[in-house]
Amino acid sequence: MSIDTDNRKINFAGKFKIFGIVSVVLVVLSLVLFFSMGLNYGVDFAGGTEMQIRAEGLKTDGLRAILEPFGQVDIQNFEGKDDEFLLRFKNISMVKDEDINAFLASVKGAFTDTEIIREHFDSQVGDRIEVWFDKEVDQEKIKSLVSEYKVPATGTIEYRQVGERHIYRIMLQGLTNTILSTIKETSGSEPELLRVELVGPKVGERLRYSAAQAVLYALMAILIYIAFRFNIHFAPGAVAALTHDVFITLGIWSLLGLQFDLTIVAALLTIVGYSLNDTIVIYDRIRENWNNHKKGSNVIEKINTSINETLSRTLLTSITTLFVLLALLFFGGGTIGGFALAMTIGVLVGTYSSIFVAAPVTIFVEKLMRRETT
């Protein structure tokens, strides 16, 4: 199979200005969407609990109704496995910080004859509340406050004395076990826990920062690689095309409100690699034709000829890649759907940017460099 471009010369260069304006508008819109609407961060970046369970006899709607008391939950059903579900919760513990603060304030009011040395609740873990007194206090009084403020405790209060510190540790119910027991009590079905992941908000924030660094470092490395592989004139075009692809994909993700997690970061880095490969093929042909006067009398004509000569390869590679991605998108199931969609958008945008972003920027840089040397 081939696409005949040998006897066909499309004037891509004549359309550079039009598509340049289109690209700028799309990038600006994407940035506006990104900064105004933000991204719908998944558990990886926002923090929370992700559980994979097997529960026979349950449907997605029924499971959602059971889990409604636990707050916002995202439920995905596995393709071909009707009894397996992926559950994502925004929280990792049974309590909120404001509820704990109200409880601790009540403890201060109840024990006015003693000094509270330290109070501690780690929302990253959420499995205990610690209160340190300067003397021993009545545990029953603490238990009554736990009951009054509906703190989801296990009923156990651990006590130990370290020097002059009297430490009371109120153990809290785990979110995972509570969810499983609630499903069992409500539906009568014994759920099986296949896996669980907990990510605290601070860890999620660090992961967001690391993900942004990964994409930025990739673009910087590509800038250096292209400068050495070809010349410095080619590097800005490649980076502009890749940045264009990433921004537009993020803009679409913000617009659709789709979940953004580490899988999508992997897709973005793959998009960068795919688009770069497409751009390098065109750049390689431009370099071959650079000193060949038969390929054009100036830079614009040579680049236009090079794009036409590589068009067959560019289109065939993109089309065959899209076949695979569309199969993953429609038949791969929920867990890989986000990755497949991001890659599909990236391949389409990347093919476009290799022709209508990288090449025009290269022409602009080349003209700018010649103007400065004259």
Briefly summarize what is shown.
With 374 residues, the chain is α+β, with helices and mostly antiparallel strands.
Topology:
Blueprint (H helix, E strand, L loop, with lengths): L15 H22 L2 E2 L1 H4 L1 E7 L5 H7 L6 E6 L2 E9 L7 H14 L5 E6 L6 E6 L5 H10 L4 E10 L2 E8 L2 H13 L4 E8 L1 H29 L5 H22 L2 E2 L1 H28 L9 H33 L2 H23 L1 H16 L1
Parallel strand pairs: 1-10
Antiparallel strand pairs: 2-4, 2-9, 3-4, 5-6, 6-8, 7-8
Oligomer type = single chain
User: What is the makeup of the main sheet?
Assistant: 4 strands, antiparallel
Q: If strands are numbered along the chain, what order do they take across the biggest sheet?
A: 3-4-2-9
Query: What are the low-pLDDT stretches, counting only 5+ consecutive residues below 50?
Result: 1-7
Structural class label: alpha+beta
Indicate the mean pLDDT. Answer: 84
Helix run count: 12
CATH topology assignment of the largest domain = Multidrug efflux transporter AcrB transmembrane fold
Q: Could you characterize what this model shows?
A:
- The chain has 374 residues and is of the alpha+beta class.
- It folds into 3 domains: 13-42 and 201-373, Multidrug efflux transporter AcrB transmembrane domain (Multidrug efflux transporter AcrB transmembrane fold, Up-down Bundle), CATH 1.20.1640.10; 48-89 and 175-199, Alpha-Beta Plaits (2-Layer Sandwich), CATH 3.30.70.100; 97-172, Gyrase A, domain 2 (2-Layer Sandwich).
- The protein is 59% helix and 17% strand.
- The protein has 12 helices and 10 strands.
- The chain has helices at 16-37, 43-46, 60-66, 97-110, 139-148, 175-187, 201-229, 235-256, 262-289, 299-331, 334-356, 358-373; strands at 40-41, 48-54, 73-78, 81-89, 116-121, 128-133, 153-162, 165-172, 192-199, 259-260.
- Strands 3-4-2-9 form a 4-stranded antiparallel sheet. Strands 5-6-8-7 form a 4-stranded antiparallel sheet, with helices on one face. The chain has a two-stranded parallel ribbon with strand order 1-10.
- The longest helix is centred in the last third of the chain and has 33 residues, at 299-331.
- The chain is elongated, with a radius of gyration of 29 Å.
- Residues 1-7 have low confidence and may be disordered.
